[in-house]
From TrEMBL, chain A:
This is ABC transporter permease. Residues 100-295 form the ABC transmembrane type-1 domain. PROSITE patterns: ABC_TM1. InterPro entries: MetI-like (IPR000515), MetI-like_sf (IPR035906).
From TrEMBL, chain B:
The lineage of its organism: Bacteria, Bacillati, Actinomycetota, Actinomycetes, Kitasatosporales. It is found in: Cell membrane. GO terms for cellular component: plasma membrane. This is Polysaccharide ABC transporter ATP-binding protein. Its main location: membrane.
């Protein structure tokens, strides 16, 4: 009978609701006030403007020519023309090119390493009642309550001989207990029938993890990968602590030098003084380089954020 | 080290329900054994029952679980090396640590003279330390007062917008700054509020005097809070949106039937639904009170000066890393660590008394 009702042709409505249209208002809800709607819109628009306007200035100034920048008296709000000269200069070898590559490399290697260790640990801890499961979990959890402190960690990394090595930027911060717990909670929410039947068919833990658990957890894995990648990409403190060679510095540390301390990039001082290059455009271009990867990646993962943030937390 | 402000606290909500399950296997085991157990069961029988519930002897269980243990080991080893060994390294706080006694920094600990609590009494007489304590508390209170309510209001606002496109786009925009590094956030603020920023620049072009908010010690605390809001208030929405999404629409309909208007529905249905989340986040924030944004403040310490910008974390950094007074700095760090641990435990106690779950269960 239900099949019959379903196959009844739809009444030709005035317009088919599109994917983005507002769902109909429930009958019990009051008609929204015009003023209320406008107020909401204005507050939301202001919030979005506060986020986007500074980024707009940075991007536009980085694309402006020296002449436009001096006409505007500094930062450019309304673009007059577009030139990529700052990017060309920065990315044609030299300090910033190297720093960008260093940051990309650390982010890539670090994220792969962190994800491997975290996924393995999350799966290894996902079966309650397995040997040493409680001990391992306690060891990890305790670190969320007591931090060792900066100085002993610094002394340890030094005495392990990790200074002036990129390992110092990866190993000490490779494992985030929080991320492991999120992954673990997600793995544990996978129906045990799936893994049990695979086990009966003779699959070992490696195979179950690789062929069942990981494919089912793509959403949360995407979110945690983004968290780790952003962590590595944004990090600067460990580099300032453990690296002494200026040529090894990642992009964030170079950005501190160029933008906060207003030094011209190595080898570009002359071009800025006499040529077509504006010091301000160069600074803004470095900032754009730093924000571009995250600004591109995060919207793709956005629909999964809630899953990644809240698995096993707020019920419902 | 978790040197984040509120987002860290927000992020920590997730494991709340996972934290308690180390206790589960034993509880589950005894529950399974209970129905079969007559009142006067012998000890040996009890043991056998427990063994059966766990899946056999230790040897068979080890064989069964060896892959799982192998998978967990890399993470546990990394945590043991980089989180636990440094905890032992805190003994330098009770020494006059001399890094040049040995080639290896950690070996030097064994050759450094012990001085007991001398470093601590020096710290308590150091006015710079008390200034750092004061700055930390001022910043924490401001962040709690000005930062904390904003994500709640934004979440209520977005939740009341029903057009999916508006919701998705505004969320994407508001989440974005969370993924920017502190270096980027501060340089962005420089472009707006700095001496060469857009506001000062516009003022000067119209004949007024420019200003530089980035180097003004008097308003530094508000600047730090504003930067935090810009970066993370949007991200803080997520937790509240999830809580709002879990409210049954029936509740709204029923209260509307009973004559509750828009505002009364918000007061009597929406806000009670948010109460547990708000309580949990407050508890986490208070437990993390001594951490007020280490990287963020360190980046601006030179521009503003230590008078306004020295907090406990930067105090440790300055004395240890810059002045190489390792023992003195480690002692200050240890004070912070111990007080923080106390705060976390106390905050959870309060949460339990209030009937909320907190970070872990009783």
């Amino acid at each position: 009978m239900s099949a019959v009702t379903e196959e009844r042709p739809k009444a030709p409505g005035p317009k088919a609701p599109g994917r983005w249209a507002a769902p109909p208002r429930p009958v019990w809800e009051e008609e929204p006030h015009k003023a209320g709607l406008a107020g909401k819109g204005i507050v939301l628009a202001i919030a979005c403007f506060a986020v986007l306007f500074p980024l707009w200035i940075v991007v536009v100034t980085s694309l402006s020519s020296k002449q436009d920048i001096s006409e505007a008296g500094g930062l450019v709000v309304i673009p007059k023309g577009i030139t990529f000269i700052a990017y060309q200069e920065l990315l044609s070898g030299g300090q910033v090119t190297r720093a960008t590559l260093v940051s990309l490399g650390i982010t890539l290697v670090g994220t792969v390493f962190s994800m491997t260790v975290s996924i393995l640990a999350a799966y290894g801890l996902s079966r309650i009642g397995s040997v040493a499961h409680r001990w391992f979990l306690m060891i990890l959890l305790a670190t969320m309550f007591f931090g060792a402190g900066l100085i002993p960690t610094y002394l340890l990394v030094q005495s392990l001989g990790l200074t002036d090595s990129y390992l110092a930027l990866i190993l000490p911060s490779a494992v985030s207990v929080f991320n492991i717990l999120v992954l673990r909670a997600f793995f544990m929410s996978i129906s045990p029938e799936l893994t049990d039947s695979a086990r009966i068919d003779g699959a070992g833990d490696w195979r179950i993890l690789w062929q069942i658990v990981i494919p089912l957890s793509r959403a949360v894995i995407a979110v945690i990968t983004l968290f780790y990648a952003v962590g590595y990409w944004s990090a600067w403190f460990n580099a300032s602590l453990y690296l002494s060679d200026q040529d090894m510095m990642p992009l964030q540390n170079v950005m501190i030098q160029l933008v906060q301390k207003q030094e011209p990039p190595v080898g570009m001082g002359q071009a800025i003084k006499t040529g077509q290059l504006s010091a301000l455009a160069v600074q803004m271009a470095v900032m754009v380089l730093a924000l571009l990867p995250v600004a591109f990646l995060s919207p793709f993962v956005q629909k999964h954020f809630k899953k990644g943030m809240l698995t096993g937390a707020v019920k419902g | 080290m978790a040197h984040s402000t509120a987002p860290g606290a927000a992020a920590r909500t997730a494991p709340s329900s996972t934290t308690d399950d180390p206790a589960e296997p034993s509880a589950g085991g005894s529950r399974a054994a209970k129905p079969t157990k007559p009142s006067g069961v012998s000890k040996a029988e009890k043991k056998a029952l427990k063994k059966a519930a766990n899946g056999g002897t230790l040897r068979t269980r080890l064989k069964r679980d060896r892959t799982l243990i192998l998978m967990t080991l890399p993470a546990v080893l990394l945590v043991l090396v980089f989180n636990y060994i440094p905890i032992l390294g805190n003994v330098v706080a009770f020494q006059e640590y001399d890094p040049y006694v040995s080639d290896n920094g950690f070996v030097a600990i064994f050759h450094s003279p012990w001085v007991g609590f001398e470093q601590f009494s020096r710290i308590f007489e150091d006015s710079a330390f008390w200034d750092a304590v004061q700055n930390t508390f001022v910043l924490f209170s401001l962040q709690l007062l000005l930062f904390f309510p904003i994500p709640i209001v934004l979440a209520l606002l977005i939740n009341s917008v029903i057009r999916p496109r508006v919701r998705a786009v505004s969320q994407a925009i508001l989440y974005l700054p969370h993924f920017f590094s502190w270096v980027l956030v501060i340089t962005v603020f420089q472009q707006i509020f700095g001496g060469a920023g857009i506001i000062a620049q516009t003022l000067r072009q119209h004949g007024y005097e420019g200003f530089d908010l980035m180097t003004d010690p008097g308003i530094f605390k508000f600047l730090v809070t504003a930067e935090g809001v810009w970066k993370d208030a949007g991200w803080g929405i997520i937790v509240f949106l999830a809580a709002l999404a879990s409210v049954s629409p029936d509740l709204y309909e029923a209260s509307a039937m009973d004559g509750a208007g828009r505002w009364r529905r918000m007061w009597h249905v929406t806000l009670p639904a948010l109460r547990p989340v708000i309580a949990l986040l407050l508890v986490l924030r208070v437990g993390d009170a001594l951490t007020v944004g280490f990287e963020q403040i360190l980046l601006q310490r030179d521009a503003v000066g230590p008078g306004a910008a020295e907090v406990l974390d930067t105090f440790v950094w300055w004395n240890g890393v810059r002045n190489q007074e390792f023992s003195y700095a480690a002692a200050a760090g240890l004070i912070k660590g111990v007080v923080s641990l106390g705060l976390v435990l106390a905050a959870n106690k309060v949460a339990h008394l209030m009937g909320e779950q907190g970070v872990y269960k009783k």
